[in-house]
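Notes, Module 5: Reading structure tokens.

Key idea: the token line is not a picture. It is a compressed description, and you learn to read it the same way you learned to read a sequence, by spotting repeated patterns. We will look at two proteins. The first is printed below with its tokens.
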Amino acid sequence: MNALESTSTRPYLIRALYEWCTDNGFTPYVAVLVDDSVQVPREYVKNGEIVLNISYDATSSLKLGNDFIEFKARFAGTAREIMVPVSRVIAIYARENGQGMAFPVPVPGGAVEGGVGLREAVIRCCHPGLDPGSMDCGSSPQ
């Protein structure tokens, strides 16, 4: 098997960073680029993206598979079934310190756009309206 035939590293990296977060007492968040293949509450989608808390306390029946992340979670008190294709995950990181990894952004036709830096992905997903270039590394938005 050569590199073109091998499976994606994305699901393995997501599982590894999820485990790192939980082992260190951090809250794992995933940023997801939403399209019709993503099953999430649409009312929480902002600018085509959603950030999901995938911690043990926030989910039930969590499955971090090679093709999908699946779990049940409550949104405003209502239980929802969540299903996210792994290919739509653009970042996984710890809520408390932002450490994690960003992935190349999928584009129509299966190609990928250049990767987004984690700092920019976290700022864009968690703090819309802020200019990532205006913040120093390590600073927190006010």
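Here is the second protein, with the sequence above and the tokens below, as before.
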Amino acid sequence: MAAPVAHIFCALALLNSGKLKVDDKQAFILGTSFPDIRYLDVIERAETHKKNVTWDDVVNAPSSFEAGMLLHALLDHVRENYVEIHHLYDQLPNNPYRTHVLKFFEDILLYDYVTEWPHIITYFDTIAQEEKKYGIAMPYLRIWHKLLQQYISQHPSAKQIAGFLKHRSAVLTHKESNTIKHYLNKLIGSIKNQFIAFKLGDIMKKLEKNKTIRSRMIYFYENIVDFLTAN
């Protein structure tokens, strides 16, 4: 599974390559960024991530937004296969967050490849009509867009990534109606996020020096158009 910057990078790479044409670039970017709203616990993963998506499904999608959603699912699948084939998880510390660590490390590698972030950020000022069809309350759609805007507004760092995860968990805690559980979850969430921030910083420094992971992932994303269109 890829993180926000990687999904947008891949969407732009396909458009720039000419391999994919869409009627509405903004809707396409919103569509490829929408599926992971599931992390706010407002929708099941199966509803936003279709299984067995092919390149033809993306090309023949009925709308630009749907093409973005399908591309999201296809990238998650292709990337995960690549990571497993090359045993990249085996080179990471054995902890519960290693899948998250790798995908956010990829965002750090990819961020500077995109030169139009100020423009992309404005896309999230708008909530697409197709987002509203999934039965998610409008406040959560707005929160998701705001989180993404804040996250992609500057080059990712361990601190910023931890902040993204912190804000996400704060939304989940806010949804808890039981007062005792609410404050208990808030405390647990605070401790957990501090731990993640510390671990992320430590692991990211090690990843920067890991030539195998770095070169493998750069190769994957530099050739992402070929990887995606081959499926």
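Summary for the second protein:
- Residues 4-229 form one domain.
- The chain has one domain: 4-229.
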